[in-house]
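Because discrete structure vocabularies remain unfamiliar, we reproduce here a specimen of the format, pairing a chain with its fold in token form:
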Amino acid sequence: MQLADRVAVVTGSDSGIGQATAIEFAMEGADVVVTYHDDRRGADETAAQVEKAGRRALVFDLDVSDEASVEALFDAAMSEFGRVDILVNDAGVDASGTPVADLDTETWDRAIRTNLYGYFFCCRRFIRERKKAGGGGKIINVTSVHDEIARAGAADYDVTKAGQKMLTKTLALELAELQINVNSIGPGMVLTPFNQKAIDDPKVLEEQVQSIPLKRAAEPREIARLAVYLASADADYVHGATVYIDGGLMQNQGQGA
């Protein structure tokens, strides 16, 4: 198995991409720290699937926007498993849909603290643990096609996604000497709770996929399989990259202009 006996922390692993990634990691031999903020039931379902795959799971109630909560997460992971080899940052909030002129400071701060501070807090503690272990390890930051493509009404989301991408690139320079690989995955439309309307209504889904050349949204497992590759030894020379997985969406920008 590609991740045999590794230990992975996967934030936001109670649903969507994070949940699929945790399960795929377990099927590839990793023990997994499953985190959630609101959906304990989803986290327990993820943990059950991890254990069904024959691996250990630790469920942790995490607020990534809170530094102390992140520190407690890693304390618990180190106590339970003795090490952490892989970090997948996926916990976050979606765009508010509010134009900048109408965007209140509280909503802006929530996005910054969750999507950007959260990745920073988790990366920082992970790096400190890997330094103690002598280096090595994998960081995978789940960003979005919106780390490059802007949307009206999504400044809070777009700005944080762009920040996540630059955090990845900066860390790639800082951590090369330690042999810690750092990469990003930039999904397009994925059938997760962020796109619940499209999941629930076939007409909405049909309308939304028209801008995607492949004319469909991704399943969370498709993103998770890419994460497995980036977390494996097969990707030891992939460093500082953002891999977009979007059905060709980004290639369709500007058509008809």
In short: The chain has a mean pLDDT of 96. Residues 105-132 form the longest helix (28 residues). The CA atoms of residues 19 and 256 lie 37 Å apart.
